[in-house]
# Entry
Amino acid sequence: MTNAVSFRGITKRFPGVLALEDVSFDVAAGEIHALCGENGAGKSTLGKILAGIHTADAGEVRLFGQPLTSARPEAALAAGVGMVHQELVFCDNLSVAENLCLRALPASGPFLSKPAMYRQAEELLSVIDASIDVRRVVGDLTIGQQQILQIAAAVGHGARVIVFDEPTSSLSQHEAEKLYELIDKLRARGVTGIYVSHRMEEIFRLCDTVTVLRDGRHVATQPASALETGKIVELMIGRKLAEYFPPEIDGG
# Structure
């Protein structure tokens, strides 16, 4: 099976913190791959290294066999990596169309061509079958709709790999279900997803493979079908659940 992403010996330090240490594993093309761990395990940091937001201090990331060398989101997207952030990254006072086309606003001579901009934005949304009025101000949209815009921007600009960083943390259940349906559609089209989460129900709902990080180190990569919730939690915390939740002492 072709690997979409290969992490090799990834190490990342922040002041006073070793966020990742010698992390290596592969993500198969066309799968949704869960990245699990407790808070501070390094999940989001690794996703941001892939998406060009952070630079690894050591190690290499390969995308479909080719090294990713530039730590800039624009370069990562040009190579085929997009990211859906916990922190929404739009200009709230601009329209959907303006946000989606901000990288290259269509012009007619020296002036902005709004009809062309609206068409371009509608085409980006149509790629993922999303129906949002491109004239609406982004600040008026729900968080779920803004996440759809992030996905449309990534897929519409050629992303073959999308990092989802705790995407349901601020969504209602209805919005989360819509996101799950969209992720299923993306997988059917061959898009690879790296799904950063600690929510077991969505990991088993969406993901083909699970990688667990603990204290910045790679612990395991296994098919989701070979795991259960208790086992993932044990891998995350580094000990048996019976040790973490000891039986009550009978004082009778």
